[in-house]
Amino acid sequence: MDRRQFLKLSLAAASAQMLPAQASFTPPESLSGTSSPKRILIIGAGLAGLVAGYELKRAGQDVIILDAQMRPGGRVLTVREPFSDGLYAEAGAARIPDNHDLTLHYVQHFGLSLVPFYPREKARVFLLGGKRIRVEAGTSVDLLQVPFDLTPDERRLGMAGLAQKYLGDAVKAIGDPSLPDWPASSMKAYDNVTLAEFLKERGASPGAIRLLELPAATPEDDPASLLWDLRQSWYDSQEKARYKVSGGNDLLPKAFAARLSGNIHYGSPVVRIEQNSQSVRAIAIQAGMHHTFEADRLICTIPFPVLGKVEVQPAFSETKRRAIAELSYDPSTRVIFQCRTRFWEKESNNGFGVSDLPHEIWHPTFDQPETRGLLVSFMHFSLGKRVGAMSEDSRLQFVSREIEKVHPGLLDNLEGQFSKAWSADPWAGGGAARPSRGQMTTLCLGIERPEGRIHFAGEHTSRWTGWMQGALQSGLRAAKEVNEAA
Predict the structure, then answer these.
(1) Domain check: are 222 and 155 in the same one?
(2) Contact predicate 1/168, CB 8 Å
(3) pLDDT by residue (tens digit) across 363-421?
(4) Tell me, what CATH number does 205's domain have?
(5) Residues 457/477, Cβ–Cβ less than 8 Å
(6) Dihedral sign, CA of 32, 33, 38, 40?
(7) Percent of the chain with pLDDT over 90
(8) Both 383 and 316 in a single domain?
């Protein structure tokens, strides 16, 4: 059992392989067709809204999708401009675990191909406590080299051993998160603490807590519920490798959108939702004017920070209003640098790594041709929020100097950059839902339940928060609800 991607880097490097061409995945259950279609409004053309619209249209329903932006995909964002030589990188959803069956199904359904997310060759670089440590492919970080306050026993255990010692029993205790009655009331104890608090109670040293928090946050600023962490660890333990869509992950939402082009209204932010016993309406702004769309049912897929700014009449239930107002989102920030050469390869490094700033560093162009390359910094929680709040120049200067410590030579090779602060995006409000202490057994229970004629989807309403899999699962659930509704 490995915790978070930090612990899986060496395993991914060793096991990353192409999915067999003949691989197949159980398709989702088809919606029953209808001879008397309902009109269905969908707010949001991210993956949740797109899959709902696609399957409802195939079932014969009359679908209209409204999106504030001029592109499909939401937080699936592949960045191609301003980069040279056809290079691209993901500013949003990036990784596809091999146990995310719905994502893999639709990738295959639309004839897209997968490639490994991590390279199988060369070394990764870790910067821990100011010490630069190279880790060869197929191996794990040698804790004897890590200048953290660890006990001798912890150093001998290694990363996976640390996770097993301090978290293994808890991961086993939460059971299978995919079961319909999960989580049980007995799990409140895990929900009411953070990871750092739990590890301290278990006797972990300060150094072990720092390591097990990486690369998402420091112990002091990680507000996530331990139960969320344990659920993610359970899913991680079931996977063997991670992939990405060849050509960019945005090819998946684009494939959906191509089948729905006549059903989508771009540049149409919704400002008000109304419903009564007979119908539901969405008022959107198009070209500066208010337009009203009326339907039998509505699926709302937009993130709660965005939904909280939409007028709703009559108001949602108190439970729903509280969830919309309080559900925590990770204020993640990504910075992508274009380098004139892939200078890190001169030392036989593959460009991937982790720093205890903390941030993950990716080299997404390792499988793309040309001599130039892109390096990505991925930051979470308070660091993501702090860096996201910086001016563009300050942000790029700060992050480039931090990556220089991991990959010396960046500043001499730097040609340009792109950054994305998801908390500053008016149509996202954060990178992904990340329930804080106590929220998983309170706010998140029943978060997906309809309110009258309004149904809810989006990764925040699923058990795969922060993943394309969660968006797809939630969209299919909501599509089934409205398809079967009277």
Answers:
(1) yes
(2) yes
(3) 999 999 989 999 999 999 999 999 999 999 999 999 999 999 999 999 999 999 999 99
(4) 1.10.405
(5) yes
(6) positive
(7) 86
(8) no
Tell me if 358 sits within 8 A of 213, measured CB to CB: yes
Decide which of 211, 237, 263 is a domain's last residue: 237
Among 467, 468, 3, 463, which residue's Cα sits nearest to residue 233? Answer: 3
Are 441 and 307 part of one and the same domain? yes
Closest of 425, 309, 436 to residue 75, by C-alpha: 425
Q: At what angle do helices 251-259 and 101-109 cross, to 10 degrees?
A: 60
- Separation in Å, CA 4 to CA 96, 396, 436: 14, 26, 17
For the chain, the residue count is 486
Q: Measure the CA–CA gap between 60 and 38, rounded to whole angstroms.
A: 9
Dihedral, CA of residue 86, residue 425, residue 196 and residue 129, to nearest 10: 50
Show the tokens assigned to 251.
Answer: 């090819």
The DSSP letter of residue 316 is: P
- Write the CATH number for 454: 3.50.50.60
Domain boundary among 398, 424, 450: 424
Identify whether the C-beta of residue 353 lies closer than 8 Å to the C-beta of residue 406.
yes
Neighbour count for residue 104 (Cβ, 10 Å): 20
pLDDT over 70 at 103, yes or no: yes
The verdict on 206 and 289 lying in the same domain is: no
Q: Taking every pair of C-alpha atoms in the chain, what is the biggest distance, in angstroms? A: 70
Q: Please give the full DSSP string across 162-191, using - where no structure is assigned.
A: HHHHHHHHHHHHT--TTSTTPSPGGGHHHH
Question: In the structure encoding, which two tokens stand for residue 398, read together?
Answer: 């700060």
d(CA 184, CA 170): 14
Note down the domain range covering 89.
Answer: 80-120+242-248+330-424
CA distance 286 to 248: 30
Say whether both 322 and 439 belong to one domain. Answer: yes
pTM of the model: 0.94
Residues 181 and 303 in one domain: no
Nearest to 212 by CA among 249, 292, 157, 284: 157
Cβ-based neighbours of 321, under 8 Å, separated by 6 or more: 315
Distance CA 28, CA 105 (A): 8
Q: What is the pLDDT of residues 451-477, one digit of tens each?
A: 999 999 999 999 999 999 999 999 999
CB neighbours of 278 closer than 8 A, spacing ≥ 6? none
Q: Count structural domains, the chain.
A: 3
317 and 463 together in one domain:
yes
Which parts of 40-194 fold into alpha helices (H)?
A: 47-58, 101-109, 152-173, 188-191
Is 22 part of any domain? no
User: Please, which residues bridge with residue 41 across strands?
Assistant: 64, 298
| 190-225 per-position pLDDT tens digit | 999 999 999 999 999 999 999 999 888 888 888 999
Distance CA 279, CA 297 (A): 7
